[in-house]
Design goal:
Number of helices: 18
Number of strands: 0
Order of helices and strands: HHHHHHHHHHHHHHHHHH
Helix content: 55-70%
Length: about 290
Amino acid sequence: MHENRTDKFWLRGAVLTREQVPSILEREILPAGVALSDGALRLMQNLDPHLISTAVRVYIGNPQPLWFIGIHHCGQDIWKNIVEKIAEDPTHALFDKAWEEITSKGDGKLVAHIVETIGTSYSEKVFEQLLRHKLRANGEFMPEAWAALLALAPDPKVRSSWIECMASHANKVLDNLSEARLWLSGENLEEFLEYFAYDTNLLKLVTTIDREQILNSPEIKDSLLSLMQILFEKYPPSHYGTCDSTMTLMQQIGYSSSELSMIQECRESIMTMQLNSELAEPVEPQEIDCWIF
């Protein structure tokens, strides 16, 4: 432990993040008078920041090969609290990594508590972290965390800009607009759905159609199809899920897939725009430093 090795901090971090740390090694690694049982704050105040950093990275298993070798997430009684404390400090070098860790569990109440602890001053940075997680996660809406963050917006203009940004990613985040209620509530949800007025009006129309009336009147059936063609040409929905729902409802009424081709074309257009917006330079995985393979 005291050899002048390039990987000495990794070795120490690996030891300190075990479920059972041998007391003799704990005393060798930690400063005099400091113990792992002292708690997150005291450890962060008294340990070498480099040691804290490497131990946290070992704990969360990032970067590789720390996850692949299977030594991550041991010693949770100590290191989980340290990660949460780092997540409360936007100035900490491992803030981003800590947020990846706390959001990965999908615990909305925990994340909401951390959001409220950080407060308004760094709310923009927290918004970026929450949105980044939502764009890479399936489900895990954590409505408690979003409600806490939106309540901390510095002013109504900023809050509205966040909701607009969230709406712009709806096709990535939501399978259909009804899922928005899993993400937002109250006035936040109302403002979010304002960006999808064509979608909601279209769905209201198709869900109130009298199926028997359509089946018994070819003229009404033709008129409705003409109306759909106009709506999808001039007032198309913004979410692909609206296209799916409309297609299903119209087919149940008795329309064929070929008659509803404008709906499929609209869906394909939405998905193409979504795909193009996601195209970017691949993110290179972070390389581990001072690691001896």
